[in-house]
Amino acid sequence: MTSKRIQFLLTGVAAWLSLLLMITTTYGASIVIGGDYTDVGTIVIVSPSPGDPTGNGTALLNNLAGISADATHPYVIKLGPGIYDIGASSLQMKQYVDIEGSGENTTTITGHIDSSTSGVVRGTNHVELRFLTVQNTGGGNNAIGIYNYGATKITNVTATAAGSTNNYGIFNYFAATMTNVTASASGGGSVVGTANYGVYNWDNVTMTNVTASASGGYDNSGVGNLGNYPLLTMTNVTASASGGHYNRGVANLNSTPTMTNVTASASAGGNNYNFGVMNEDSSPTMTNITASGSGVGALNYGVYSLSSGTIRINHSVIKGTYASVYNEVGVTTRVGATQMDGGPPINSGTLTCAGVYDENYTFYATACP
Known about the structure:
mainly beta, single chain, 32 strands, 10% helix, elongated
């Protein structure tokens, strides 16, 4: 090898080592990448130990506790593949500290916290949770996978809760943005007082490409929306509930959501109540919705609305084996360009149909089937 080639090789190695020294420092037992905190933030990599989920959970909590972040000093905690068991603790996220896993099938944060105001992960403002699974294994009165008390972004996340009296895959108390999310809740037994919600929304929430399911309790809702906030938006959402006495794919209470491309289903056998979408004191706008209630011997409705509100349904499929629509006194429902499958609606309020058709494709220009 010529002296010039050797000199060129040594120069390249020296430059690479210099770059590594510039961008790499140590943070506890982890690796921190990114020396320019203001411009690129800091990445804290947590590498789990195989076969030690409790130790991994402790390492995660300790790393988060040691971080001081703000708008000009953001952090990302990057979790390697593995299970992080935080026990009965709650991972309280910090503002400007994102938590990123290595994939929903490879990174899991698990625990069994019993609380109605916290979950295995508790969100806050100016954070994102992404590419992982959060699991609450329950065992008490309340099991919540993710509890958002702030404008948390949740992206490519699976959240589950099971085994308690009340189970919530995701509980959004304040504004949250959910994209490509799967949330489920189950367990508690089909006895009075048990409830399961795949997603429960209290405040302004945006949901895009979300799958939510609930099963196995007395009261089940794939998605429950509570609160009179116009920014509650659901797009490309699949919600299902089954196995309880009350099952609702989507439940709207004092809410004004915009629902687009949503599939909502509820099912169970016996003398149960299954509503694809239930509206109480709510005024949703529903477009391209498939809402179905089914089950042998049950009271099944596609859309069940009571108390008050104005409901708009367009370009949708509404199916119930008892009736397609139930419309109570005080409620105004307007249905256009929609299939109404299940026999004549049950109506004691104000119901207007325009350009609808039944399960046999019989067309009704200005009347309801």
